[in-house]
Amino acid sequence: MKDDNKFTGLAIVGALVYAVIFVILIILFFSSCKTVKIEPAREIITETREVIRDSIVTLPADSSMIRALVECDSTGKARIRHLLDMFAGSRTKPPRISIDADNVLTAECDVDSMSVYLALKDRYYREDSRETAVVEVNRLYWWQYMLGGLGVLFVIIIIIKAFR
Predict the structure, then answer these.
(1) Is residue 46 part of a domain?
(2) Residue 115 domain-assigned (yes or no)
(3) d(CA 18, CA 24)
(4) Would you say residue 93 lies in a domain?
(5) Do residues 111 and 60 both lie within one domain?
(6) Phi, psi of 118 (to 5 degrees)
(7) Helix (H, G, I), strand (E, B), or coil: what is residue 116?
(8) Confidence category of residue 53, pLDDT binned at 50, 70, 90
(9) N or C: which end of the chain has fewer CB within 10 A?
(10) CB-based contacts of 164, cutoff 8 Å, min separation 6
(11) 116 in Cβ contact with 57 (< 8 Å)
């Protein structure tokens, strides 16, 4: 019997080689078509400035109180007999009482100053943004792309000729 089959083993291998090369070319074609968008470089500079200023805050009045019974003894000297009430304010301490040899009553009380000086810091922020232009270097011209494509085409043709 005579084999009437047009395809021989060598022809099938050649068709497979062409199919593989075709698939590789399709993959290369779709993977290499990507555009690159070049955005300008943006630099943001933040400047912070602090200004120190003095401010006066006035506080409400404050007081303290003491009530005591004072009596004189037989020699005419005054002395504190009984302490009735003692009250200290929010910023003041209770008063200190003393009686001298001359029968002089002295009450001393420490009080903070009625004004408080504060050092306030004002912060000022300033943002400055600068755009830097990007310069393309070594960009290929159209004819350089054409020569590269022809080189790939010739390499493929040489590979096909080598396997025949």
Answers:
(1) no
(2) yes
(3) 10
(4) yes
(5) yes
(6) -115, 140
(7) strand
(8) confident
(9) N
(10) 14
(11) yes
Q: How far apart are CA 139 and CA 145, in angstroms?
A: 10
Pair (30, 63) in one structural domain: no
DSSP 22-71: HHHHHHHHHHS----PPPPEEEEEEEEEEEEEEEEEEPPP---EEEEEEE
The Cα 7–Cα 15 span in angstroms is 10
* Residue 9, pLDDT score: 62
User: What's this model's pTM, rounded to 2 decimal places?
Assistant: 0.32
Asked whether the beta carbons of 41 and 130 are under 8 A apart, the reply is no
Asked whether residue 48 is domain-assigned, the answer is no
Please write the tens of the pLDDT for every residue from 103-128: 788 888 877 665 556 677 888 888 88
For residue 41, pLDDT over 80 is answered with no
| SS3 of residue 8 by DSSP | coil
Both tokens assigned to 139: 């960009």
**Residue 73, token pair as written in the block:** 């003894």
Residue 56 pLDDT > 50, yes or no? yes
Residue with tokens 């009380």: 109
Asked if 63 contacts 89 with a C-beta cutoff of 8 angstroms, the reply is: yes
Domain residue limits at 27: 1-38+136-164
